[in-house]
Amino acid sequence: MNALLIRDLKLAFRAGGGFGLGLAFFLLVAVLVPLGVGPEGGILARIAPGILWVGALLACLLSLDRIFALDFEDGSLDLLATAPLPLEGAVAMKAFAHWLVTGLALTILSPVLAVLLNLPAQGYPWLVLSLVVGTPALSVIGAFGAALTVGVRRGGLLLSLLVLPLYVPTLIFGAEVVRRGAEGAATGVPLALLAAITTGSAALLPFAAAAAIRVNLR
Amino acid sequence: MSIWEYANPKKFMQVSGRVLPWLTGLAALTLSLGLVWGFFFTPEDYKQGSTVKILFLHVPAAMMAINAWVMMLVASLIWVIRRHHVSALAARAAAPAGLVFTLIALVTGALWGQPMWNTWWEWDPRLTSFLILLLFYLGYIALWSAIEDPDTAADLTSVLCMVGSVFAVLSRYAVKFWNQGLHQDSTILKVGESDPLDAAYYVPLVVCIAGFVLFFVVMVLVRTRIWIRARRLGALLARERMG
């Protein structure tokens, strides 16, 4: 499992791995929105939680098809499926690796971009916390979508269509935590629900994703 | 004699072929009866005027949009557990019907909302949930058509349907949490309570709902038969190519 994790991380960081791509996209969103909406601080502060979460979500979406597609093409997915490590574990590990290079990196970058979007100061801890809690769900759900479409050539658009409605609850609760946090309101309920989605999907979706991969390798 | 006999495509084709003309006639009859009754022979509401009559399209379509997904879920489960091909094809056949019902519900809702709420669209929980449901239908149909091998497609769409159902319910509660909303509660099940739907509307509405259910069944049967025939044709062509 560790070997698989290290291998995926290495592949992501080396040339062509697309590690910087998601981060650059996240940065672009945070720069382009104020340019489009206008520089008024009040408006930006109000939409900052939503923009940051939508940006994180889209940046995550951008790298999803890499989770399985390359391994499917060069045959290493077949090896993983026949390896002694259960495929469910391999899926979970690959989703975890995806989270480390996108979700975690986005979380670390997010306070900087929150400055650009004029997020109120008391929202910062909630932004980081909600992203830490919520982005693993994005990676796991995305891994499930990627597993469904791994056999489809040029399945990128299909993957987005399948995954976006699945992202809705995560997005709503995640942005709600930041919005309430920025206003100084109680954030316990959406944060708990966000954590429930993450833990629930991390526990169950690897099984569905592994089942989908087995079907695709058949 | 058990229901699983109809999982045999031959038997299914026989029985559905015999039942279909009757069902189609019955569906056309109830649907036209309900809609004509609803549109022309019900009183106008004292507050909403004649716009109230859109109820006879909106409510049954919205109900069937959800019921079609539930039917797809059941059919997917039957496919996954018992591997009956007819079941997988029935799930595939139901999806476009569900998509159209969702669209009808959204469009009629917008048409009604414009004069009543003074807006075509509001990010209300019910409206938002239906928009998400529309995305689920689109994704499901797109996945079916993207994969060539029929068994692989059936398996993957079944998994998507099951996971999607969980997330559809989650989204429903998430958007409820996110916005309290403008849409009124359902009054259909409130018979005998303080604020019931008047019988003048209730009876034609029930006829309309029955008509929509029958229409849905007819559509699913017709489309399932088409898919079975398409697959038989594919098998014949493949056999011809072989020898």
Structural summary, described in words:
The complex is a heterodimer of chains A (218) and B (243). Chain A is mostly helical and 218 residues long. Helices cover 82% and strands 0% of the residues of chain A. By secondary structure, chain B is mainly α. Helix content of chain B is 77%, strand content 0%. In chain B, helix 2 (55-82) crosses helix 5, helix 3 (85-117) runs parallel beside helix 5 (150-178) and helix 4 (125-146) runs antiparallel to helix 5 (150-178). The longest helix of chain B has 44 residues, at 199-242. The chains are: A mainly alpha (218), B mainly alpha (243). Chains A and B meet through helix 8 and helix 9 of A and helix 4 and helix 5 of B.
Topology, please?
The complex is a heterodimer of chains A (about 220) and B (about 240).
Chain A: H1 2-13, H2 19-37, H3 41-62, H4 69-74, H5 76-82, H6 87-116, H7 124-148, H8 156-183, H9 188-217
Chain B: H1 9-40, H2 55-82, H3 85-117, H4 125-146, H5 150-178, H6 199-242
Helix pairs in contact in B: 1-6, 2-3, 2-5, 2-6, 3-4, 3-5, 3-6, 4-5
Our count of helices of chain B gives 6
The helix content of chain B is: over 70%
Average predicted confidence as pLDDT of chain B: 85
Main sheet properties of chain A:
none
Largest interface, with counts of residues having CB < 8 Å to the other chain, equals: A-B, 28 and 26 residues
Helical run tally of chain A: 9
The major sheet of chain B is characterized as:
none
Helix percent band of chain A: over 70%
Radius of gyration of chain B: 20 Å
Low-confidence stretches of chain A: none
Overall 3D form of chain A: elongated
Global mean pLDDT of chain A: 87
Number of domains of chain A: 1
The strand count of chain B comes to: 0
Domain count of chain B: the total is 1
Principal-axis shape of chain B equals globular
The sequence of SSEs of chain A as H and E is HHHHHHHHH
Rg from Cα of chain A: 18 Å
Membrane topology (chain A): Multi-pass membrane protein
InterPro entries (chain A): Cyt_c_biogenesis_CcmB, Cyt_c_CcmB_bac
Main location (chain A): membrane
Pfam family, one (chain A): CcmB
